[in-house]
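Q: Start with the shorter request: fold the first protein.
A: Done. Sequence, then structure:
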Amino acid sequence: MEIQTRSAACRLALVAAAAASFAMALGLPTAAAAASLAAASPRVLILFVPGRLKPPPPPGAVGAAPQVTAKRTVTEQLAAQSQLSIGLSSSVQGRYLAAQALLDITQGTRISLSSYNPELPPPLLLVPDQRGAYFRGWMELNQRAAEAPAQIEPGLLAGSVAGGAAYVGVNEQSQRDGVVAADRAGRIEQLSIGSAATLAARAQALLGERRLVVATLPAGAASDRELARLLAERSSNELVIVMRSPPLTRRVQLLPIGIAGLGRPGTLTSSTTHLNGVVAGIDLLPTAFDWLGIKIPSAVSGQPVTVVAGRDAEQLLSLKGRLQVVGDRRYTALWALLGGWLILTLVAMLIGDRAGMRWAMRAGALAIFWLPSVLLLTAALEPQLLVEVLIVSLGSISLGIASDRLVRWPRAPALPALVAIGAYIVDLAFGSPLIIRSLIGPNPLFGSRFYGIGNELESALPAILLIGLGALCFGRGRSRQAAAIFAGCGVVLGIALGAAQLGADVGGVMTVAAGFGVAALLMLPGRRSRRMIALVVIAPFAALGLLAAVDLLSGGDSHFTRTVLRADGSGAWWEIFVRRIELAGRGVIRGLMPVATLVAALTVALAVVRRDRLLAPVASDPGWRAGLAGAAAVGVIGALFNDSGPMLLLFAVFIALCGAIYVRGDPLLVDPRAR
């Protein structure tokens, strides 16, 4: 039964009749005419699908023996509706929470849970009343949002639509999706809870009265039936958004989504993601506002969803499947590589004693430098777990052994460094299709970055290139030409990592500028003047200004361009700065990160103090000194200017440590008399 008593229905009928008579007497439009006018205005219907569904029985199967059929996914269900453009929706930023995924849709903007205080939203209880319904706990929710380091308004979606929103649900099903229909005060203006068979009819009836209606489809086979009815009855002025209801799980989600009304059916995308087939949950609000003709507030960070040609559900499922395993495999593959290096070292020592150990030091360090390139290969192949781990570990070590044999010590790191930088720049130029699928890429599953360069690559690539350039310049001494080589490569890498249409990593530009600025300074002949040191200090900020000019002139539509360069001066810059500092600070104190950060800092300090002994095999060569110092600077400066600061420090210091291990693998150290 629907939530409405018979007496209330009678009273409403009498009031409607009286209003109609009064309107006719005054010559005003009747209720029917008003409903006709309302129906002609743009409307938005947001539908949530509860979960997996069993496919309907094939035609002619009546009376046949029952067959066991596999459940189909919601993506396949949406793809079966030819009117829908299909895609995947990034639900949250960072750690997943179903309640926060729904709230982010109503806000049109999002931050990670760790930026809230308290992190978790309060429990929300839907309470029906005579006007509709309200959520108990919304006041605490607003207070939580007000204290967050960003301009966040839960309920902005329904609260900005004249007359509010309606919610349509099914008896004995969860009504938590009704959060999307709540306004800023947590109110739902109209509520209809009834049977599964009447959901489509009830939703269509409410669309005649409300410009925004949210509904949760029935579970099971009835979902297909009601969805097909709603799509068949969709008028040209009606936008229908169908989305998987955020499941109650801790695993990060990419939710299937389909939209009817945005033109010819195809694949969904948006300026938030720049990734065909993937949009963000916060894009639903600006999409609805754009359809309804409502001005999108400046605080909204989501972007309207658009459609590109092509419609392939299998490709979406393949992308989703790959992104879901990247996080779990990342450190498994790294530990496998380190374990392979250890085994190689032990075997080499058994066979060749000290000479074998030095050889294994060089080969293993070079394997780490080859790792980013190998990860692009596995991203293209998308193999099973065991195969990928074997390719990463054995492939990297094999390339390390081969490059040590082909290139004389101590110049071998130049080969994997140049190959990696070239491969990543080419992939960035094509929209980073392999980077986002690689184990070291910015996993779109976590909703922070959907293309370009992530935090790991932001420190790893500059550190590898710096060490490679240092090896390439071995024996050439300090000169303006050598300094120009470091500076020029830094400019190229900085543009590749930071430009909106390539890497779109603003922090990476400052990191690259700092690391290559230090290296170029160390390669200049003569004494370093205060002016030169000052130029290195301001280099990251100058690089940021250059990036801003490049993005504005090239029409880059990145997060940096929208939120910083086009900020309205209402404190957006300060909010971004505070949020990044808070995230970096919380990252330092999480888990074992305090110990790891301290170890990394002490490693850098020890290397600086003992630099002459460390670089004794290369006689403190200026090129190697500049490369290692620049790599350390990448980690230190990156930690200060990035919201994942400790992670950048660890990666850069690890790369620099591998460079030092390679140097200490000097074959002549086996017999000092040979030198």
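Q: Next, the second protein, separately.
A: Sequence, then structure:
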Amino acid sequence: MLLGVDVGGTFTDAALLDGERLVTAKAPSTPRDQSEGVMAAVDAVLERADAAPADVDRFVHGMTVGTNALLEGKVARTALLATEGFTDLEELGRQARAELYRLCAAHPPPLVEPELRIAVPERCGPEGIIRKLDEDELARRLDGTPEGIEAAAICLLWGFRHTAHERRAAELIASRAPELHVSTSHETAGAFREYERCATTVVDAALSPLLRRYLERLAARARGNGLPPPDVMLSGGGAAAAGVAAAHGSWTVLSGPAGGAVGAARVAQSAGSPDAVCLDMGGTSCDVSVCHDGRVRETGGREVGGRALALPMVDVHTVGAGGGSVAWRDAGGALRVGPRSAGADPGPACYGRGGDEPTVTDANLVLGYLDAGSPLAGGVDLDRGAAEAAVGELARALGLAVEDAAAGIARVASTEMARAVRVMTVERGIDPRALALLAFGGAGPLHAAEIATELDMRRILVPPSSGVLSAVGLIAAEPRRDLVESVLLSGEALTPAAAADAVERLAARGRAELGRSDAEVRATYDLRYAGQAFELSIPGPARPDPEELRGSFDKAHDERYGYSDPDAELELVTVRVAVAGPSAELPRRRETEGERAGSRRVAFGGEHVEAVVVRGAPGELDGPAIVELAQSTLVVPPGWRCAAARDGTLVMERRP
């Protein structure tokens, strides 16, 4: 049996795979200690499966501990050891404005206070050591460091290539403060660009103590309940043992969204639409990713909460539009939705837990898309009167009828999500009309048709377990190591052998760390034209042909930027290797056909219609209709048709 548990802002989802049988469950999230909600969800899914903890062979966990800590600034007090003269690197950054046309916008403050920045007396260049490390002087400076430090980040110039000084500095810290967590840049983010490497190492050090404490609590709870030690979903879409994740907190910042992206890519491949936009709308936010040929698109780095992370990650764009997003009137009188969320406690007004602010879920209940007589997954009963009262307060402030305000809330939320889809497609040179929209999460299928209509997309996929697909994706996560090496090869130096040597070095290290000599090796090459500042990542074989890489790069450059330069010299900057073990196959069988449960009055486009209500996966069905699935609700507007595919995925297509 394989168990996946994903923590969301409102609910914690669990999925248990036993051969061809997939059992799912939900429990409210517990923000104070996520491990409590995790174990509640585990208990619920084991009870539904009539299984015991000892039956579970693998337990994979996706979490938001690192993300929340980074966004809220609640991290460990951290010192930075940097080459003498470069101790302010994290604060100086790239000297780019946070927003081009808002001069008042600022970058987040540095995580390392000025008094905790320690100058390391050493210097390396691209060819090796220029100034030998003065160990005695460094020891003296370490002894003068203020008390109360929980972690240290070490990032020295060219430390990613020449690691001896970083290793020795870590040994000196360990000899003085063995309880201190130490992150070195060559182990955390071993690629060039000193600012991004430094910022990543600082984040890694600042998050790791917090993450270690959380994972120790979770492992103890799992052990006490008879479960195997948890693996943790990493930001790149692979899973690693909890000890590996605890040692590198930065590797887990996108742990939660990664599970959904991996699960969505698997479903898209199974449903015959391997190229898709994947939209995960939960209670707090909406995550958008793109999969190509059934594999989620990845990136070599991005910003999270305004902080640079030079790490392999699933390429996800997040907006604050979820079921619990609060609707409000801004100073100019406009209706706004999010990014603030009602969260799990008290939650939307209709949850009846003391919330009194209008949310997207309240609006969907007022419009008839949700039904007060059908509890949400997790056993949440909906109070229509409370939803109408909350939306009514906002409606009065806006000078609108209650139902018009509810329709406005739903439309604004859908528009925000459509904008996120454009960021991941149109702004990357991808035509969304050529892709399917795979909608999941507890609230994704409610808004899928409106988003698709705005983007002129004609095909929507909704997995049968859409409400818990992130947990299902954790089950499908492959054991993996992501490794990088900056090689900076161009001209005659860029040969198949030179690139292959770098791949083999990384592959050998990855296989050793994973403990699998037969692990699959996937290579990606960061390429640019000579003189450019940044690169594009191009997948290729372990022994690439430079001419084939050039052809793929020229094509990708033309798609992204509208031109290519086949005559320019090509430069291979960084080699990225993913070393992966086998992953589980998800079941491919159709759910039992649903049954019609009458109809109800629903608002579409300002008009009221009687919509057919189906509980479970339908046969062929024309809108207007509402499909109530186990963990989510699908809205089929007029002009759309819905049917279940052979694997149980619901396929919606717009009628001509």
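Q: Describe the second briefly.
A: The chain is about 30% helix and 30% strand. The radius of gyration is 25 Å.
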